[in-house]
Amino acid sequence: SRCYGSKTASSEFLHESVVPSMHYQKSLPRLPIPKLEDTIRRYLAAQ
């Protein structure tokens, strides 16, 4: 049985974890930082 109350609905997405948030941070690959010119070009194209 599902309850659609606001408190229940929002709590469905939040849960306690035994693993700290930053636990796997060092094992994640570093993402490249795009060149500023490329970012500006994409931003202006989206306008």
From TrEMBL:
<protein>
    <submittedName>
        <fullName>Carnitine O-palmitoyltransferase 2</fullName>
    </submittedName>
</protein>
<keyword id="KW-0808">Transferase</keyword>
<dbReference type="GO" id="GO:0016746">
    <property type="term" value="F:acyltransferase activity"/>
</dbReference>
<dbReference type="InterPro" id="IPR042572">
    <property type="entry name" value="Carn_acyl_trans_N"/>
</dbReference>
<keyword id="KW-0012">Acyltransferase</keyword>
<comment type="pathway">
    <text>Lipid metabolism; fatty acid beta-oxidation.</text>
</comment>
<dbReference type="InterPro" id="IPR000542">
    <property type="entry name" value="Carn_acyl_trans"/>
</dbReference>
